[in-house]
Amino acid sequence: MSAPGPVGYAQLSMVDPAAWRATGSAWASLAGVAERRAGELADGSTALRTGWSGSAAESAGARLTGLRDELVALVPAAIETDQVLAEFATRLVAARARLTAAVALAAATGVLIDRRGGVRADPARVPSDRTGATVAQVATALREALDLATTADVEATTRLARLTEAAGSGWTARPPSYRPPPNAEPGLVRRWWAGLTPAERRWLVVHEPELTGRLDGVPADTRDQANRLLLAARRAALVARWEQLLARVPRGPLEVVGLRSVEAALSGLDALVARLESAQQPRAYLLGLDVGGEGRAVVALGNPDRATDVLTYVPGMTAGLDDATGELGRAARVLARGAELAPGTQTSAVLWLDYDAPDFLHEAAWDGQARAAGEALHRFQEGLRATHDDPPARQTVLGHSYGSLVVGTAARDHGLAADALVFVGSPGVGVTQAADLGLPPGQVWASTAPDDVIRLTRPPDELARRAVLGASPVGTIAGWLAGPSDELWFGRDPAEPGFGGRTFPSGRYGHTGYWHPDNPALDGMARVMLGR
How far is CA 351 from each of CA 223, 320, 398, rounded to the nearest angstrom? Predict the structure, then answer.
């Protein structure tokens, strides 16, 4: 990285964003080394106290404790270095995409670009009366690309300099005297966080990561640092639960089911950690993690506080920690398609799996779990608004299947800080009209595949009528599949004209195929995210 200053055409042409991303990932790997060494020091201190006493022992113990604290404080600094370099790499990718577009424009319009970025018209291709306008258009496109790279270079250099300064003056400080309650309004949290000193913020990350990592209104990069500090403890909790279930002999059916569930969650957590630790772009930010029950995770691809367009994806039935990376892959495909449609745009997509998704049809037949999730989704979206750098991002919330009911219920009951809502494969969203969701109907979108079985679900009152007419219990459940209707299980079909929203097409890819590369629905989701 150069010293702050204008980035030239040749520099941007030759820079390798992947190399900067790999450098950041190497710094992140130091966090794991520091954590292991801190653990070894803690173990050594414990062993020392059991066999040595007196003033010398106390002095040695204090020194070991101090060394351990320094190592623990180093962990978020290493993670932050990775964040800075990853974001720098992301913005270089965007700048290079704009540069490529400018070069293509020059080639198409007959403008020549020299090695220093100077532009002039090719007299053999550009008529003299169009020379000025054509050259100016290419020069503007080049300048925008170079300005983006320069801004990224200056910002990254400044952030790394601050880290260096903090290392020289000491990482820790006295803890702040006030903590907001767990469910505090995100705007209040943001103001509280802004009023802390950098050292106080770092103290909270190191010493109270459980609080810092879950507070909506704390910036995404800070939450990521805190939650990564908790990864080892979260995995240890899952392993302990697995060992406890494994030790039960004989095991009944419930213990067997529980054991398999924990094994699946453990496998899913390991896959998620592998994604978090990879050098893959965009960088993943861990905004929340809970290994209780089926497990919950909130993961952003790209920093949502710095993106111009932010998508929040809420998955549906059976979603849990066991397949968090699979659900994250769906969000990644929307981002990738967005990059194809609008090269150079900085986007972020968040997997919001912070609710207890139904596992079985009889659970998905009721809206209780969706209603229980509403306040948390509302608060999360408000937090994204509160922590975002100026200017505000375009925020889109996407719900699939039962997740669309979660989104609709949250919008209806609590309101959502969103510029657009998208429903795919929806069984209904809890309202009869798009206007009831608190957004302009023109910003409410939906799509349902022609072969999606969700089209055939029936509202409860119709099933009740069938039951009264003598249908068997099996027939009552099968009544979900009785034929097309504007009325679905949870209200009017949001993909039908009578709902009052807007639609985009989907191919015949079934209930889970909206993210298939050849499905036009993938384009639809990406275009809504981009506001196009």
Answer: 15, 11, 10
Q: What's the length of the chain?
A: 532
Find the distance separating the first CA and the last CA of the chain, reported in whole Å: 35
Query: What secondary structure does DSSP assign to 148-168, as a single string?
Result: HHHHHHHHHHHHHHHHHHHHH
Q: Helix-strand-coil percent breakdown of the chain, rounded to 5? A: 60, 10, 30
Residue type, 469: L
Give the residue from 331, 463, 488 showing the smallest Cα distance to 402. Answer: 488
Q: What angle do CA 517, 364, 466 make, to 5 degrees?
A: 115
Residue tagged 């007419």 (tokens): 469
Order of all β-strands in the sheet with 296-301: 284-290, 296-301, 347-353, 309-314, 394-400, 420-424, 444-447, 502-503
Neighbours of 415 (CB within 10 A): 15
Buried b (16+ CB within 10 A) or exposed e, 473-496: eeeeeebbeeeeeebbbbbbbbbb
Q: What letters, b where the CB count within 10 A reaches 16 and e where it falls short, cover 192-224?
A: bbeeeeeebbbbbbbeebebbbbbbbbbbbbbb
Quick one: which H or E segment has residue 378? helix 368-387
Distance in angstroms (rounded) separating the CA atoms of residues 365 and 454: 12
Alpha-carbon span 148 to 281, nearest angstrom: 19
Q: At residue 398, what are phi and psi to the nearest 5 degrees?
A: -115, 125
497 contacts: CB under 8 Å, gap ≥ 6: none
Per-position DSSP letters for 85-136, written without gaps between them:
HHHHHHHHHHHHHHHHHHHHHHHHHTEEE-TTS-EEE-TTTS-GGGHHHHHH
pLDDT in tens, the chain (532 residues): 445 679 999 999 999 999 999 999 999 998 878 777 777 777 776 777 777 878 887 777 777 777 777 777 788 899 999 999 999 999 999 999 999 999 999 999 999 999 889 999 888 887 876 778 888 999 999 999 999 999 999 999 999 999 888 877 666 677 999 999 988 999 999 999 999 998 899 999 999 999 999 999 999 999 999 999 999 999 999 999 999 988 887 888 888 888 999 999 999 999 999 999 999 999 999 999 999 988 999 999 999 999 999 999 999 999 999 999 999 999 999 999 999 999 889 999 999 999 999 998 889 999 999 999 999 999 999 999 999 998 999 999 999 999 999 999 999 999 999 999 999 999 999 999 999 999 999 999 999 999 999 988 767 655 444 444 444 444 444 444 444 456 788 999 999 999 999 999 999 999 999 999 999 999 999 999 999 9
Is the N-terminal amide bond of 282 cis, ω within 30° of 0? yes
Alpha helices in 195-318 (DSSP H): 198-207, 209-214, 220-229, 231-246, 253-277
- In DSSP notation, 210-242 reads HHHHH-BTB-HHHHHHHHHHTHHHHHHHHHHHH
Q: Cα separation of 262 and 238, whole Å?
A: 7
Cβ atoms 188, 217 nearer than 8 A: yes
